[in-house]
């Protein structure tokens, strides 16, 4: 068996060291069936983290990358939802809040199909999983086919997308809606400030913030916002995790979530073709979603996509990186692509001037370079922008962003996020998806047949770090 840390020559010394460091993070964070985002702050399995981690793990171990996705999908609810956390019973309850005894998925979630033998949260995260599954397959198609990987995950991924486009189409316009700020993944974005004002926070003494044991208060959500998060989660739990239009105090359509759903629908079309299914069904749904995305969330005056508040019925006038992520979507109208590229390089996001795109408009009233999702640059959103730039023919800009991300990952010890001006580390260190996406950016091979021009890994036999383990 090849060691996951074995590194062949020749390669640039800096990239070799970066590869070793990224591999070490993923080895350290591996639990035996999945990868925690970090050992301290996030000690369980997170949904979209696991998707991004699998994309990087394919460069180390294709089987481990498959296991990452299979373990997450093994906790799927019968209504199709993939929960945003799968809890490890080996982790003490006080290590993370909200803990399993808060969510009570196996009991409160029973009416919605929560598994009886696995404790999870009851909310979801962005659907990157089909894209990840397709990229993992392409890393070593022979091993994937011999193990029946895609047939095992296909039906679960279809059920997941059916849930998002069915019960979660709360606005009736064809897009998936999110019912908690944690669901779009950008938990503390200023986009949620307006909708959250309608929510009465939970009493401070009714919960304990475990996140402050591992992070600085100045980089984390405020107590007021956190209390509102707790209230929304408790109310959803007490409803039996029911998705009822008009019954949610917080309900938004997010452009990043729906862009990733579209890209994953295209990936499902590839998976269907590989497994003997009908790719046309998925391509048709991707086309409908793309049309709805532009119709419902495009703001010509802002030159980007905005979130829609389904309670108030209006677009939310806050400009976050979520509105640029749709660059990963194939087949956008050319005027939309041109405007997105102008906005990405303009004064709000300054892509090409600063190391990485911020999570929120530099000129926005709520911009903060250090506080969680209110300005810092994140590696997953910039990885998506890098793919989008390549998709629409901006290879030079994509190369520059890729180089900046690699530099920032190494200098920050694979930080959760970084200051967008200086790339100084913020949040926790040795963060799972930062290490994983670093490995992906380092991969030498590129292949356009992967639902995005950034391409998959090389075949396993060509990979430089123990890819066949």
TrEMBL record:
Belongs to the glycosyl hydrolase 63 family. It comes from Streptomyces atroolivaceus. Keywords: Glycosidase, Hydrolase. It comes from the Bacteria. The lineage of its organism: Bacteria, Bacillati, Actinomycetota, Actinomycetes, Kitasatosporales. The keyword Hydrolase applies. Pfam families: MGH1-like_GH. Residues 450-469 are annotated as: Disordered. This is Trehalase family glycosidase. Residues 42-434 form the Mannosylglycerate hydrolase MGH1-like glycoside hydrolase domain. The keyword Hydrolase applies. Residues 452-469 have a biased composition (Low complexity). One of its GO terms (molecular function) is hydrolase activity, acting on glycosyl bonds.
């Amino acid at each position: 068996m090849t060691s996951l840390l074995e590194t062949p020559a020749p390669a640039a010394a800096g990239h070799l060291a970066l590869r070793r460091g990224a591999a070490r993070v993923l080895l350290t964070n591996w639990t035996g069936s999945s990868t925690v985002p970090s050992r301290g702050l996030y000690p369980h399995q997170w949904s979209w983290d696991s998707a991004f981690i699998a994309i990087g793990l394919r460069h180390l171990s294709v089987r481990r990358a498959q296991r990452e996705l299979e373990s997450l999908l093994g906790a799927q609810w019968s209504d199709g939802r993939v929960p945003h956390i799968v809890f490890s019973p080996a982790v003490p309850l006080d290590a993370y809040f909200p803990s399993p005894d808060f969510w009570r998925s196996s009991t409160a979630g029973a009416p919605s199909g929560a598994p009886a033998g696995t404790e999870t949260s009851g909310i979801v995260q962005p659907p990157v999983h089909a894209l990840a599954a397709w990229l993992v397959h392409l890393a070593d198609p022979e091993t994937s086919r011999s193990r029946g990987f895609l047939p095992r995950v296909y039906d679960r991924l279809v059920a997941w997308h059916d849930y998002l486009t069915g019960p979660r189409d709360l606005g009736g316009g064809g897009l998936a809606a999110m019912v908690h700020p944690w669901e779009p993944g950008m938990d503390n974005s200023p986009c949620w400030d307006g909708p959250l004002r309608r929510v009465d926070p939970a009493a401070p003494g009714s919960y304990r913030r475990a996140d402050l044991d591992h992070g600085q208060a100045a980089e984390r959500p405020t107590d007021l916002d956190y209390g509102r998060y707790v209230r929304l989660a408790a109310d959803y739990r007490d409803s039996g995790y029911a998705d009822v239009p008009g019954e949610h105090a917080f309900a938004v359509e997010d452009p990043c979530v729906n862009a990733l759903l579209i890209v994953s629908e295209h990936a499902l079309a590839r998976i269907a073709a590989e497994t003997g299914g009908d790719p046309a069904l998925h391509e048709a749904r991707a086309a409908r979603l793309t049309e709805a995305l532009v119709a419902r969330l495009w703001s010509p005056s802002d030159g980007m996509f905005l979130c829609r508040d389904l309670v108030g019925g209006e677009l939310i006038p806050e400009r976050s990186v979520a509105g640029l992520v749709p660059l990963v979507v194939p087949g956008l109208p050319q005027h939309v692509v041109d405007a997105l590229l102008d906005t990405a390089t303009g004064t709000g996001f300054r892509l090409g001037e600063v190391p990485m795109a911020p999570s929120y408009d530099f000129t926005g009233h709520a911009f903060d370079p250090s506080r969680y999702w209110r300005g810092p640059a994140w590696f997953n959103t910039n990885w998506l922008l890098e793919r989008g730039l390549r998709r629409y023919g901006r290879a030079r800009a994509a190369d520059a962003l890729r180089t900046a991300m690699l530099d920032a990952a190494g200098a920050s010890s694979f930080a959760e996020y970084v200051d967008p001006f200086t790339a100084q580390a913020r949040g926790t260190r040795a963060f799972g998806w930062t290490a994983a996406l670093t490995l992906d950016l380092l991969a030498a091979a590129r292949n356009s047949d992967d639902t995005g021009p950034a391409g998959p890994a090389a075949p396993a036999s060509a990979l430089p770090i123990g890819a066949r383990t």
